[in-house]
Amino acid sequence: MPKDNSAARDSEPVVRSRNDERHDMAILSLALRGMARVHREHEAAWPRRVPPLHSANPREKNTALAR
Q1: What is the pLDDT of residue 54?
Q2: Burial (CB count within 10 angstroms: exposed 0-12, middle 13-18, buried 19+), residue 45
Q3: pLDDT tens column, 30-57
Q4: What is the pLDDT of residues 15-35, one digit of tens each?
Q5: Residue 31, CB half-sphere, CA atoms under 13 Å: how many?
Q6: How many whole angstroms from its chain centre is CA 30?
């Protein structure tokens, strides 16, 4: 039966090149851009009808809480 070296492998540091890090950052930035675009499209499709709770107008706050 072969010896299990998984513990030894996990303890060795993983050497990552700068290129790997750039690749990871590029993937993350593309994902975030896509999420931001979807968010903007969603916000544009569904206009706000309820005023925000942090509104300066106290009447708006009351109506927002009552709904």
Answers
A1: 66
A2: exposed
A3: 999 999 999 999 888 877 676 666 656 6
A4: 888 899 999 999 999 999 999
A5: 6
A6: 12
Contact between residue 53 and residue 65 where contact means Cβ atoms under 8 Å apart: yes
**Cα–Cα separations (whole angstroms), residue 46 to 39, 42, 49:** 11, 6, 9
Residues 6+ apart with CB under 8 A from 67: 50
| Number of residues written out for the chain | 67
Helix (H) or strand (E) holding 62: helix 58-66
Q: Is the pLDDT of residue 66 over 60?
A: no
Burial of 51 (0-12, 13-18, 19+ CB in 10 A): middle
Biggest CA pair distance of the chain: 76
